[in-house]
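Q: I'm writing a short explainer about Phosphate/phosphite/phosphonate ABC transporter, periplasmic binding protein for a general audience and would like to include a description of its predicted shape. Could you first generate the structure from this sequence?
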Amino acid sequence: MIFIFSIVGCSAKPENKKQENKVIKMGFVPLKNSEKLIEDVQPIADYLSEKLGVKVEAFTASSYIGVVEGIGSGSVDFGIIPPFSALLAQKQSNAVPLLTSKGATGKPGYYADLYVRKDSGIKSLQDVKGKKVAFVDPSSSSGYIYPGAMLVEAGLDLNKDITYQFSGGHDKSLQLLLNKDVDVIGTFDGVPEKYAKDFPNALTDIEKLKSSDLIPGIMVTASSKMDNELQQKLKQALQDIEKDPKMSELFKKMFNITGFQEVDKDSYKKVEDTAKIMNVDLDKVK
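A: Of course. Here's the predicted structure. Afterward I'll give you a sentence or two in plain language.
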């Protein structure tokens, strides 16, 4: 569910004719097939093009940490990224938190789940011992940090008590589970419904084993190199999504995002605490 928007070199005012040569690149961490994803988000690109007065193009980022590094270098001017990635960007390059997304319930947050097949015989976290687990990415909040922490707090040593791999995408983890290549996956709440079109048996063959505490919402995070005036215009454009029925429905359908609000920085302390359970040092993640 995790994705990023990026703006490259767009500090000039929209009314300036030179803006015709400027391009806003809207990128995403791996959610599904890159070509299909870019096709699906074209209406968002068109919406932002109109709001900002510059052309918006979409691309797919290859990894979560690649987005963080892009924000740090300024090649990615802002991202709508999961909270752990947002914290990394803030810690490593003084990135600026702009907005927090609201989930399907209207609350600024979402959940991570551990899913198993209904025929697996796995009924408790302790039953995961000795099993194969698929996480998404080392920098994914719902795809690693939170589900991994649930297993650690249940007394499992991830390096000794399970065999795990990183799939590279939430849909890929789901496919591994359905194909019986792994026994457990860590992903975001509602993943069976999200990918029901591609994997209809996800609605009947798997079940939740455990849900996490509320994860603070996906955050709009700007590079420290991004022009402040442009930051404010982007904030307004994203907050205006709730006033646009078409865009509002698209964000909800694709990302379970129902809007954006100001950032409550204190709520993200929980993410850092959860990372510590996983022995993750924000200064050293690369």
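A: For your explainer, you could say: The CA atoms of residues 109 and 129 lie 29 Å apart.
Q: Perfect, that's easy to follow.
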